[in-house]
Design goal:
RNA-binding, alpha/beta, 303 residues
Amino acid sequence: MTNSGKYLVVIAGPTAVGKTDVAIKLAKKWNTEILSADSRQFYNEMSIGTAKPDQQQLDEVKHHFIGQLSIHDYFNVSKFENEALKLLDGLFELHDLLFMVGGSGLYIDAVCKGIDDFPDPAPELRKYLKGIYMDEGIGKLQEMLLQLDPEYFESVDINNPNRLLRALEVCHTTGKKFSEQRLSSSKTRDFQIIKIGLNLPRPELFHRIELRVDQMIELGLVEEVKRLLPYRHLNALNTVGYKEIFEFLDSKITLEQAIVNIKTNTRRYAKRQMTWFNRTDEYSWFEPAQLNEITNYLTMICK
RNA sequence: GGUGUCGUAGCUCAGUUGGUAGAGCAACGGACUGAAAAUCCGUGUGUCACUGGUUCAAUUCCAGUCGACACCA
């Protein structure tokens, strides 16, 4: 079976730019479905703070990977790659064109280009390494990595605990050097990929971010976060919009300050997203209002 | 109205015994292969309120003006 005449249209862009609306309009036009590539909208318990499509929008177009996980589930890019590919394979039997919409650059790339295959780390190992980091600091991790994988030690961002922990985890799990297994080779897919980027002039984007954060508060973000307070240690909740409200609930800051912090951190997140998307020239960029231009562009390419 | 204190980066402030200035936060730029809305790295962006004076040299000393605050009337 081949999907050579099939198209996956990626719609990426910074948070709050308006991806959801554009994707729904396009998906209706093509009478097709949407895959979300948003590492936080996966979680069922997180809705307001992740600006998930609302029920009405979900009724308009069939969405996948929205709220299908619990914050208690363990999930990662690799699982996303596998599940998304499996899903795409099935959906391409029904549709010639599918949309994948989201702001998580790494997750989008995993579906489009694949990532190297590593065994899942044992949870105890991850806990053990984290413990070493907590007790003995980053210097110890650096020391360990230098021993196990000097090549990666040379190239890695040496002050980044997540990178060091990950490399050590792979070395221990596989008994081989991380650098030897990290091929960064690009897999090819049997479907065509079209990448569309949505962006706005920065002042406009920032304005939209402010409005959206205020709206989240009105919709009851504080209540949503309050319910999740017992699970604050979970990775899914280490997220803009949630961690700031946790601080407010701790009485460390006022609600006003928490709101200001969410806005600031969301702006910075948007900036990091753009840095990611800008490293390739594979995206064709549009403003969200250019629906006709996008439609024409897609029609032209998909002939 | 009088007296005093203050006016330095977008914000909060430090500092220069006279040689045009630096922290935190914000901002800006970047990295990124199983935590990615995560994590990490880099960059100081300035009429030192304004106008004069003294001086080789003033953001610093002096005078005046404006503004803020406090106290006294």
